[in-house]
Structure formats: C-alpha cells, structure tokens
Amino acid sequence: MLPKILIIDDEPDNFDVIETLLDNQGYELSYVNNAQQALELLDYFQPDVILLDVMMPEMNGIEFCHKFKSNSHWKHIPIIMVTALASKEDLSQCLLAGADDFITKPINGLELRSRTRSMLRIKQQYDALQEILYLREDLSNMIVHDLRNPLTAIIMSAEILQVTEYSKERQEKKTSQIITSAQKLQSMIDSLLIMAKLDSGKITLQRQDTDIFNICSTAIADIELTITKKNIALITKLPQPGITASLDPHLFRRVIDNLLSNAIKFTPEKGQIFFVADYTSSGKFILQISDTGSGVKQELREVIFAKYEVGNLITGAYQIGLGLAFCKMVIEAHGGCIKVEENYPTGAIFIVEI
Predict the structure, then answer these.
(1) What pLDDT digit, counting tens, does each position of 220-275 carry?
(2) Distance between CA atoms of 285 and 75, rounded to whole angstroms?
C-alpha cells in the first residue's frame, strides 16, 4: 500500500508544485483547499503525513494544527508546515502548535522529499510499535485462554474430590484427570518458553541421529486410546527401523504430538487420519499427517502458522493458540518447512519437510 500524503493549501498552484516535486516517489497524494474540509475528511481518511500551509483564510495552519494534535486518534500523524514565514519566532510558533517539521517557501524539491521521507519513517516506526503492543496484548490473551482450561479442570476435579465421597476407582479416575490436566498445563508452559528462546536465538537444537520409525511409532502408540474412544481409523506408513535423520528428538516429537492432536480434534467420529513418514530421492525427510475433517480454508493456510494465532478450521473464525506456531518455529529452526494442503474430497494435509 502506498504511503498517503494529505496536502492542505488554499492555493491549487501550490498543490501542483508539490505534486510535481513528489512525482515518481511512490506516494498517494490527496488535496483539500481549506482546514475545515481537512478535519471533516479525517473522520474517514487518515494519511501518513500531512503537508500543511500556514497562511489560509478562516482557519489557518496554526489553528488547524492545535485542533488536529489535540485529537488522540490523529496526533500521531506527522505534520510538515509549509510556510513563507522564515523568522525564528514564526517557526517556533509552528512547532509549539504541534507541527513535527517545517519547509519554507519557495519549496526546494530535495528538501521536500527528504523531510517527507523522514516523517514517513517516524510514522512507520509508530505503526510498528503499535503492532508490537497489539501482539503483546494478543499474547496475554492467548496465555489466559490456553492455560485457563486445564487449570479449571484441575481446580474442579480437586474440589469434587474434597467434598464428595467417591469409591477408590472413581477417586483414581479424578486423580488421573488432575494429572493429565497438569501435564497439559506444563506442556503449554514449556512450549511458551521454547518459542521465546527460539525467537531470541537463545536455544540450540540438540540434534541426534534419530530413528524415524521409533519416534513416529511411539507418538502413534500414545494416541491409540484417544482415537479408539473417538472411533477414528488411523492408517500409517512408516519407513523401516534403522533409518535415521538429524533431529532434535525432544522438539520434533512435540511437533508430531501437536499435529496429531490437531488431526484428532478436527476429525469427526468414524473419520480417518493418515500418518506417512518417508524420504525423498534427494534425502529429505517428509512427514504427512492428513485428516478427513472440514479442511483449512484457502485464506487461513498462512494465518494458522502465525505466532499466537490459530484458525478455527471448522468455522473459519479465529481462536488464539500455540500449536501450529510452535511447529513452524521448530521446523524452521531445523532448516525445514511446514505447509497445509487440501485433502480431497475433504480434510487437510499437513506436510513437514526437513
């Protein structure tokens, strides 16, 4: 998207001069001939930089600047005053009104382009900071959302045990639920810590020659009870034992677990999950986990791997989560890639290549 520059000047000839001087600079220029019209325009249009004439009838540039900078929705947008006034007192008045920079008339093309670029950098830095703040807020929401469920399960199960007379068998079942939820909570916390270290470059992969058959078959064995309860068929195709790849087995196992967990979650009862591990002719390791769920919409196929944001693969709405973002970071740390494709006629195929 081109940077938007709003020019406020009561003289159309001045706009023509600025348009000529900024030609071929990659900007989208808009023009209004009075300050009041500019204020009305700003209700639905926000530029990246404003070039503002000082000497205008009705509302001059100083008055406009005061109004503009007093509005919390607009005050972050840089204003460059364009003025024929050259005294230090006049320029000081412009800055006191809230202007971020100024250019004296007659306008020099090199100066105009340089000052405009400078103000655009400031605006871009502000926008980048806002994105970071929004991301931190999203991250906080994600942590609360993802950690609340297992924590709630732990508290509820513990409270039930405290106030209810259960048989030994039912006590053991509730205790097992507490342990499972606690382990899930611990896994989420570990994932957060690993992602933070990967993001900062402070984690070193503990690569080992890892037997692909062993790491895949143990992951499959751990979900057998879950898929049996949900009445899901699991079809596997694994390489012969003894074939190895250079992986961090702990992190890669977590990737497999996350992908299998997603497949189980979005596969309906009596559906199928396909688990295929193989090698290409060039020696790359390929892992494919596919399901017969509702699939991933085209517009979500990149978004679901974004940090702290996971698409709801059923409704197309968004929910916050860790799983696929974690997978992407770990796979890329291994020098590989992960993607999702359509599993015709229904479902999704997650493909990992290292």
Answers:
(1) 998 888 898 899 999 999 999 988 889 988 889 989 988 998 899 889 999 999 99
(2) 53
Please state whether the peptide bond connecting residue 106 to the residue before it is cis, i.e. omega within 30 degrees of 0: yes
Pairing between strand 310-311 and 318-319? antiparallel
| Crossing angle for the helix pair 109-163 and 168-200, to the nearest 10 degrees | 160
Burial class (CB in 10 A: 0-12, 13-18, 19+), 348: buried
CA angle 30, 34, 35 (to 5 degrees): 95
Query: Are the CB atoms for 185 and 147 separated by under 8 Å?
Result: yes
- Contact between 331 and 354 under an 8 Å Cβ cutoff? The reply is yes
Report in angstroms the alpha-carbon separations of 131 from 4, 187, 249. 19, 28, 34
Contacts for 271 with CB less than 8 Å, ≥ 6 apart:
232, 233, 291, 292, 293, 347
Tally the C-alpha atoms within 13 A of residue 273's C-alpha that lie toward its C-beta. 24
Give the CA distances from residue 348 to residues 124, 226, 259, 299, 339, in Å, rounded to whole numbers and listed in that order.
Answer: 37, 20, 11, 14, 10
Residue 297 sits at φ, ψ, to 5 deg, of -60, 150
- pTM for the full model? 0.53
Contact yes or no for 286/351 (Cβ under 8 A): yes
pLDDT number for residue 260: 92
Cα–Cα nearest to 265, from 293, 244, 229: 293
Q: Which of 159-168, 191-200, 260-269, 316-325 has the lowest mean pLDDT?
A: 316-325
For residues 309 and 228, give the distance between their C-alpha atoms in angstroms, rounded to a whole number.
30
Q: Name the CA dihedral angle for 281, 282, 285, 287, rounded to a multiple of 10 degrees.
A: -50
More confident residue, 148 or 16: 16
Tokens standing for residue 119: 């103000």
Here the tokens at position 271 are 């559906």
Q: How far is CA 77 from the centre of its chain?
A: 24
Contact between residue 252 and residue 238 where contact means Cβ atoms under 8 Å apart:
no
Look at residue 307 in the predicted model and tell me its pLDDT. 57
Looking at the chain, how many residues does it have? Answer: 354
Position 290 scores a pLDDT of: 93
